[in-house]
Amino acid sequence: MRSAAKVTMLYGLLVSGVALTMLPLWWMLAASFMPTGEATVYPPRLLPGAATVGHYVDLFTRLSLARHVFNSALVAVLVTLIALLLNSMAGYAFAKLRFAGRDQTFRILLAALVVPAQVTMLPLFLMLKELGLVNTYLGVMIPGMATVFGIFLIRQYALSIPDSLLDAARIDGAGEFRIYWSLVLPLCKPILITLAIFTFMGTWNDFMWPLIILTDSDMYTLPVALANLLGEHVQDNELMMAGSVLTVLPVIVVFLVLQRHYIEGLMAGGVKA
Amino acid sequence: MSGTPGDARRQSAGIQATQSQATAAYWLIAPALSVIVVFFLLPVLAALALSLTDFDIYALGAFDNLRFVGLSNYVRLFRDPLFWVALKNTSYFVLVGGPLSVGVSLGAALLVSSRVVRLKGFFRAVFFLPVVTTLVAVAVVWRYLYHPRYGLLDYVLVGWFGIDPVDWLGDPQWAMPAIILMAIWKNFGFNMIIFIAGLQSIPDTLYAAARVDGANAWKQFRYVTLPMLAPTFLLVALITMIGYFQLFAEPYVMTRGGPLNSTLSIVLFMYEQGFRWWNMGYAAATAFVLFAIMLGATLLQLGFGRGALR
User: Fold this and answer.
1) By the number of CB atoms within 10 A of the CB, which of B214, B216, B258, B307 ranks highest?
2) Interchain contact, A98 vs B116, CB within 8 Å
3) Per-residue model confidence as pLDDT tens digits over A100-124
4) Which burial class, exposed, middle or buried, applies to A33 when counting CB atoms under 10 A from its CB (0-12, 13-18, 19+)?
């Protein structure tokens, strides 16, 4: 009897937690389908009286949001691909290849982790301005293309590859690059998926750097475009909610499809550290 | 045995292999390292130099207008009341929001990890969902939830508890607590996952031994779970603190630092100085002071953490 009460209480807490967690997201979704003005009635409603997709149509026609979806998707996909390549190359070399200065270089990189990105933003902006990269896709992408975190993640994973496997490939006459490409990369697949999810979501959700480096509204990524839209349409709650849904939908879908890799990668990292 | 021709050949082959390995390694590392050196490490040094100049909108037009001013940006910063307001607000966010976030994360992790709970994967995924959402988008959503006239929060507080409506984001006293509440909602899932991993690594035999010794649920939590979670706690506390010091998008989207600068954070202050007024030398000094504060707080926490772990 006592343990039945305990189980009921546990589930009660969990279900209230689920309700509280989902409520803001649910309201965002419901309000995005409400006709103009319905999201501001009192008492607030949790379901649209007469659902409409008008705000989504508005976003794609009058407010050309497709442009920003394209910008965000392009930048996030390219950064993810480049970061996977560069970080895996370096991470593998730091883990498994012998060369002068390896451990010192790696320690310097790790030490750089304590510097917050904001410190670099002012000079980086001036530098990219000189290079003509302000307001370009490349300018948005540059800070994410290779990261200490990414190199570290791959290195820790690659350390577990047995040396005998690499040596066997060398005896068979495989060159170092071939070993990296055809042997190491497939072995690192789980951690590559984790890094891909982290990088894609981080780039898609990033706000401060795109806000700084993109000056022309045509180039804005979705979060910057959304913040900008808020300035002009703060009264159009339902429209803003539709814009928010479009911004979070891709990352939520990626998460729901790949959540096993994401959460397990995070848990493995947490235990190791 | 040494000195036979076969040995020499093998040895030189070995040296060759090591050399080709080193060459390959340099090529593999070069792209990532160049990006990090040119676009991260170099800018850090440049930021330090920049903070010693009077770089402003005139210098942005022509570098001739740039002057070396020594530490005067730092002196000016410490005399700027607005910077102290930003520092106070950021500390409030870190010192109140941080522990609350960690507490909620631990609570959620304990609930989800409970032996009798089924559907663990479902609860874990739902609680994690806010973490993956775009901060700007959910900040927009919460702006409306906090609305004094039609927002859900006031509706519940007024309707169910009979509390007078609060203009959350319009009241200098309540704007920061409102941002903290949103940050907890957005972030608790992340630390929850790390806590779950930490809880899983505690061997069951410890609990069994504690039960044999007659420890009840609370004593098991106090004398087994908490001590065994100490390293996880340190990690979670560090991650949270470092992240919370960099508060920016929430006030930018929800309040623009207002009302009455009550949600102006250090990073928002830096952004406004650097990219709105183009006082880039001054903004660089702000960034370095933030860096120094974060480094100091990290070392302090590591010191405390090591003491507690011992």
Assistant:
1) B258
2) no
3) 999 999 999 999 988 999 999 999 9
4) buried
Min Cα distance B291 → chain A (Å) is 7
Tokens of A8: 């009921």
The fold of B75-309 is: MetI-like fold (1.10.3720)
CB nearest B290 (choices: A22, A94, A118):
A118
Say whether B142 and A148 touch across the interface (CB within 8 A).
no
Q: Output the domain CATH number for residue A92.
A: 1.10.3720.10
Q: For residue A29, give both structure tokens.
A: 């979704």
Is B201 part of the contact surface with chain A (CB cutoff 8 Å)?
Answer: yes
3-state secondary structure of A174: coil
- Minimum Cα–Cα distance from A41: chain B residue: B150
Q: What is the ipTM of this complex?
A: 0.92
Q: Is residue B220 within 8 Å of residue B202, measured between CB atoms?
A: no
Q: What is the pLDDT of residues B114-161, one digit of tens each?
A: 888 889 889 999 999 999 999 999 999 999 999 988 888 888 888 888
Average pLDDT over chain B, rounded to an integer? 90
Q: Which residues does chain A have with pLDDT short of 70? A: 1-2, 269-273
Task: Specify the pTM.
Answer: 0.92
